Amino acid sequence: MSKRDNLYLVGLMGAGKTTVGRLLARHYGCTFHDSDHEIEARTGVKIPVIFEIEGEAGFRRREETAIAELTALSGIVLATGGGVVLSAANRERLKQSGVVIYLRGTPEHLYERTRHDRNRPLLQTDNPLDTLRELYRQRDPLYREIADIVVDTGRQSVSGMTRVLCGKLDLLRSGLPVTGTE
Known about the structure:
Radius of gyration: 16 Å
Structural class: alpha/beta
CATH topology: Rossmann fold
């Protein structure tokens, strides 16, 4: 399996990984997967219920198993959960088996997109914006560590971001360097 066969989207919650991932899968004729949806399908419950019963540690164990299985596939586009990079094993699997795309959004922008979403257990706090700022501080270096491509989500539409990504992916696949962010 070639590293170029799979596309993996990473980034904080609300960055648009699932939406962009579906568009990329359609564009490239790949199968789309969402690791959170896979976990929900396997357990038969929503992510917040897993967090409630097993805690974040239990969810992360399930996530690591799902990532191991999904990264063994070929020809997929995978939208990952925001915390996927907390596991060194997940980071290694993603980096080694596909092209990693970091959809980077500011905490303020992501807050606007997620503030009414009750399916995000880590944001069920007194100050979700501060939580997003802390998650960004912790995770941004980990996303960057494994990213082949970084795209800022705040400046463009989903279709515009997908066009930019397709251009960068075509460059990467042709062997040309991909630099900077869009």
